[in-house]
Inverse folding.
């Protein structure tokens, strides 16, 4: 019997990750880049604005992904302090 392919059928949803860490660990570099662009522009690729809650969640995911996959110098928020003089506040 031949199976019928319905081009309009909704594909099955992927399994829900067990935790926030599992979700971040499975993010692709393309998704990471897309989230960064959305946060930078304040809009989703569709043009819809990010809500403050969406922006916060995206930033958390970006920072967590960076922590897992990038060296410290390439992470969001990295400040190169190698050329700075030490002060009494650096303890």
């Amino acid at each position: 019997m031949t199976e019928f392919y319905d081009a309009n059928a909704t594909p099955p949803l992927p399994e829900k990750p067990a935790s926030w860490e599992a979700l971040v660990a499975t993010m692709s570099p393309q998704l990471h880049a897309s989230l960064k662009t959305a946060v930078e522009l304040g809009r989703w690729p569709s043009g819809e604005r990010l809500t403050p809650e969406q922006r916060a969640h995206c930033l958390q995911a970006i920072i967590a992904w960076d922590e897992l996959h990038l060296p410290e110098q390439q992470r969001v928020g990295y400040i190169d302090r190698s050329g700075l003089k030490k002060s009494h506040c650096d303890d």
Summary: The chain has a mean pLDDT of 83. Helices lie at 20-25, 29-41, 52-69.
